[in-house]
Amino acid sequence: MRGHGRWVCLDVGETLIDETRIWSTWADVLGVPRLTFMALLGAVIARGGEHHDAFASLGVADWRALVPVVDAAFGGFRDADLYPDARTVVPSLRDRGYRVAIIANQPASRGAELRALGVEAEVMAMSEELGVAKPDPAFFARALEVMGSPNPADVAYVGDRIDNDVVPAATAGMRAVWIRRGPWAAIQAPGRLDPELSDRLPATLTVVSLTELANRIEEAFSTRL
């Protein structure tokens, strides 16, 4: 069967979920105008930094202490947070014979929240429960483990970030798929890759939506690794 034995592993933030509301919630909790916080976040991304660098720029020394407050205000994923193609991508991939996993840098509670919104996968695991997060190579090793230890070349990992998703997935031997949406995908460019990886194709497939992903997924597996 077409796609038999092959996996598509999906990221969550800016792949299935539009993170506008969570970042807006952070701005509100910090008492910073949303536009100001979004602009600062964009500047941090453009410099190759991480989201916590934005907190440091605002003088917030221990942003982790605010996580419970933000989580309470955020209230978990809602229907409006889903990208329009988030519900249809899993059945579309299954119809093409692919097994589907959702494994991402998220709190453990996000799995149940996605299921409540009708987004289900054969395997679903978040970094909090795995005990390791991207871009640590151990994250991708654990992802393979929870998928039943398939050949990495039989797994397409789909994410929005070159640094957190595309490069480490490719390094792990997976077929890295770059979905270009969200702030990281809009700002990052292949030219900013680690020079040691510059001779490698950063992604076996680049798409702008999950609908395009489902329609073109076979292309990700047509490239010799």
Structural class: alpha/beta
Helix content: 40-55%
Task: Quickly count the helices.
Answer: 11
> What's the shape?
globular
- Strand content is 5-15%
Strand order of the largest sheet: 3-2-1-4-5-6
Largest sheet: 6 strands, parallel
State Rg. Answer: 17 Å
Alpha carbon gap, first and last residue: 22 Å
Oligomer: single chain
Description of the structure:
It is a single chain. With 225 residues, this protein is α/β, with parallel strands linked by helices. The protein is built from 11 helices and 6 strands. A 6-stranded parallel β-sheet has the order 3-2-1-4-5-6, with helices on both faces. Helix 1 (20-30) packs across helix 4 (67-74). The two termini are 22 Å apart. The relative contact order is 0.17. Mean pLDDT is 91; it is low at 193-199.
